[in-house]
C-alpha cells in the first residue's frame, strides 16, 4: 500500500510539476523596448506601434501598443508615466481592440467592447480599463516596458488576465500570478 | 499448421488413407506408374492444403480461445438479447465510428504536423496543398469533429427521450456526459492547432473565458497557456492534450461505457408494450 503510494507519487509529482511549472515562472517581458523618437507622438491622438512580448513564437509574439504623449490637462491619473501606452488587449476576453480617431474610442471587433480615449470602459462587456505599459524616455526616444493593469479609477495593479475584475473586493477573487 | 497444438488440429481424411504427408511413395512402384503416382500425389497435396487453409481461421480462433477463455464472454456479448432495434439505436455506434475516424485521420495528420508556433501554420498549409490526399484527410478530421459532436448530442437525446438513463443505467449516463465534455475539450484544443488568425484569437478568447472564474480561473488560464503570455509552450501543450491526454481518457471511458451497455442491456423503446417486455424476460429465463 505504502509502496504503491510512493510509486504513484514518484510518477505523479514530477509530471504535475512539469505541467504546472510555468505558473511560477516569470514569462512576462521585463525589458523596455524602443518605439520611436519623441517627435513621433503627440497628446491628441494615438500612434500604433508594434512591440514583442514573446520572442520565441514569431509573429504571434508581437502585439500592438497605442502610444501618445501624456496631457496633464486631460489625464487625471497618478501613474507617473511620461507617455500613455495602451495595450490593444480587450479586457473582456482578450481580442485586439482598434483605436478609432473619429470617435476617440477603442473598439473591439469580437463582442462590442468600447473604451474611452483614456482606456476607461464606455460600453459593452469589458470589466476594467485597458491595460497599459510603463513608459520612459531615454536620449530622446520613447521606450515601452512591462505591462500593468488598472481598476476603473485608473489605480495601478499587478498585471491580470482579461476578464478579471479589479474593483473593490473583486481584486481578491482574481489573484495575480505568483511571480508578478 | 505445425504451429497449432495437436488437439486443435482437426483429423484430416487424407491422413488416414495410408499416405502420410509429403513422403515419397514411389519406391516400390514400377517405373511406368511413377508419372501417374506423382500426379495423384500432387492432387492429394493440393486437396490437403485446401482443407488445411480452410481450417486456419477456426484453428486460430480455437488457439486464442484456449488461452484466453474468451468464448463464453464473446457468446454472451454477441448473442445477448436486445429489444427490436431501430435506427435510433445506431447513434452510439455512429459516435464510436466518428471517434475511430478522428483517431485514424489524426494519427496520419500528426505525421506531417509540427506543433511549434513558428511552423504550425506552414505545416498545415503543406498538408492541405502539397501532401497527397492531405486536403482530404485534413477535411475528414475537421468535418469529422463536427459530425462527432452532432452525433454525441443525438445519441444523448435518444438516451434522454427513451428514458434510457434511468436506474440502473445512471452511471453510464454520467460516463457519457464525461465523454461529451472530453469531446468538447478535444474541439477546443484541436481548434488552435491550424494556428491561423481565427484559431489563435478563438483560443485567446477561450483561455480568457477560463480565466474569468474567480480564484482558480487565473491559475487555470496560466496552466492552459503555460505561462502569462500565449507563447511557445501553449501550442505544444494544446497539442499534447489534444493527441495524447484526452484521446487516452476517451478510449478508456468508451471501454467502460460499452462494458456497462453489455452488462446492463439495452433499454426497450418507450413504445414497446410491457407484455412484450415480460415475454422477452420469460424467454430469457
What is the name of the CATH class of chain A? Mainly Beta
DSSP, total strands of chain B:
0
CATH superfamily of chain A: Rieske [2Fe-2S] iron-sulphur domain
Number of separate structural domains of chain A? 1
- Major sheet details of chain A: 7 strands, antiparallel
Description:
The complex is a heterodimer of chains A (180) and B (285). By secondary structure, chain A is of the alpha+beta class. Chain A has 2 helices and 11 strands. Chain A has one domain: Rieske Iron-sulfur Protein (3-layer Sandwich), CATH 2.102.10.10. In chain A, strands 1, 2, 3, 4, 9, 10 and 11 form a 7-stranded antiparallel β-sheet that branches. A 4-stranded antiparallel β-sheet of chain A has the order 5-6-7-8, with no helix packed on it. Chain B folds into 2 domains: 72 residues; 195 residues, Cytochrome Bc1 Complex, Chain C, CATH 1.20.810. The interface between A and B is medium-sized, with 33 and 29 residues.
Sum this structure up briefly.
The complex is a heterodimer of chains A (180) and B (285). With 180 residues, chain A is α+β, with helices and mostly antiparallel strands.
Secondary structure layout:
The complex is a heterodimer of chains A (180) and B (285).
Chain A: H1 2-20, E1 33-37, E2 47-52, E3 62-69, E4 83-87, E5 98-100, E6 105-107, E7 114-115, E8 121-123, E9 132-138, E10 141-150, E11 156-157, H2 170-173
Antiparallel strand pairs in A: 1-10, 2-3, 3-4, 4-9, 5-6, 6-7, 7-8, 9-10, 10-11
Chain B: H1 31-68, H2 70-78, H3 91-110, H4 120-129, H5 134-161, H6 170-192, H7 197-211, H8 217-225, H9 232-264, H10 274-284
Helix pairs in contact in B: 3-5, 4-5, 5-6, 6-7, 6-9, 7-8
Amino acid at each position: 500500500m505504502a509502496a504503491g503510494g510512493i510509486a504513484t507519487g514518484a510518477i505523479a509529482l514530477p509530471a504535475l510539476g512539469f505541467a504546472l511549472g510555468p505558473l511560477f515562472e516569470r514569462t512576462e517581458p521585463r525589458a523596455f523596448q524602443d518605439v520611436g523618437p519623441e517627435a513621433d507622438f503627440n497628446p491628441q491622438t494615438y500612434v500604433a506601434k508594434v512591440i514583442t512580448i514573446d520572442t520565441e513564437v514569431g509573429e504571434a509574439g508581437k502585439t500592438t501598443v497605442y502610444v501618445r504623449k501624456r496631457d496633464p490637462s486631460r489625464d487625471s491619473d497618478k501613474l507617473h508615466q511620461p507617455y500613455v501606452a495602451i495595450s490593444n488587449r480587450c479586457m473582456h476576453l482578450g481580442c485586439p481592440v482598434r483605436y478609432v480617431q473619429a470617435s476617440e474610442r477603442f473598439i473591439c471587433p469580437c463582442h462590442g467592447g468600447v473604451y474611452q480615449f483614456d482606456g476607461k470602459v464606455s460600453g459593452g462587456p469589458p470589466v476594467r480599463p485597458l491595460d497599459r505599459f510603463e513608459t520612459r524616455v531615454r536620449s530622446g526616444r520613447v521606450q515601452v516596458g512591462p505591462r500593468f493593469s488598472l481598476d476603473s479609477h485608473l489605480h495601478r495593479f499587478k498585471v491580470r488576465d482579461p476578464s478579471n475584475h479589479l474593483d473593490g473586493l473583486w481584486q481578491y477573487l482574481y489573484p495575480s500570478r505568483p511571480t508578478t | 499448421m505445425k504451429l497449432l497444438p495437436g488437439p486443435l488440429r482437426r483429423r484430416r481424411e487424407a491422413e488416414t488413407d495410408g499416405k502420410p504427408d509429403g513422403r515419397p511413395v514411389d519406391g516400390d512402384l514400377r517405373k511406368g506408374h511413377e508419372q501417374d503416382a506423382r500426379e495423384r500425389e500432387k492432387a492429394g497435396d493440393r486437396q490437403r492444403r485446401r482443407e488445411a487453409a480452410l481450417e486456419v481461421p477456426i484453428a486460430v480462433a480455437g488457439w486464442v480461445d484456449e488461452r484466453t477463455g474468451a468464448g463464453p464472454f464473446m457468446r454472451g456479448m454477441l448473442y445477448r438479447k436486445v429489444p427490436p432495434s431501430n435506427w435510433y439505436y445506431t447513434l452510439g455506434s455512429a459516435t464510436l465510428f466518428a471517434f475511430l475516424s478522428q483517431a485514424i485521420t489524426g494519427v496520419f495528420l500528426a505525421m506531417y504536423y509540427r506543433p511549434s508556433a513558428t511552423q504550425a501554420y506552414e505545416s498545415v498549409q503543406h498538408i492541405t496543398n502539397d501532401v497527397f490526399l492531405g486536403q482530404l484527410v485534413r477535411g475528414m478530421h475537421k468535418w469529422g469533429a463536427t459530425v462527432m459532436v452532432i452525433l454525441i448530442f443525438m445519441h444523448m437525446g435518444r438516451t434522454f427521450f427513451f428514458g434510457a438513463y434511468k436506474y440502473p443505467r445512471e452511471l453510464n449516463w454520467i460516463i457519457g456526459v464525461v465523454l461529451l465534455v472530453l469531446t468538447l475539450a478535444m474541439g477546443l484544443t484541436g481548434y488552435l492547432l491550424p494556428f491561423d488568425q481565427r484559431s489563435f484569437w478563438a483560443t485567446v478568447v477561450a483561455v480568457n473565458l477560463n480565466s474569468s472564474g474567480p480564484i482558480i480561473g487565473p491559475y487555470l488560464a496560466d496552466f492552459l497557456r503555460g505561462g502569462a503570455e500565449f507563447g511557445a509552450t501553449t501550442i505544444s501543450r494544446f497539442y499534447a492534450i489534444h493527441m495524447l491526454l484526452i484521446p487516452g481518457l476517451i478510449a478508456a471511458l468508451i471501454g467502460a461505457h460499452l462494458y456497462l451497455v453489455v452488462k446492463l442491456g439495452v433499454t426497450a423503446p418507450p413504445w414497446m408494450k410491457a407484455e412484450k417486455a415480460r415475454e422477452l424476460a420469460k424467454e430469457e429465463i
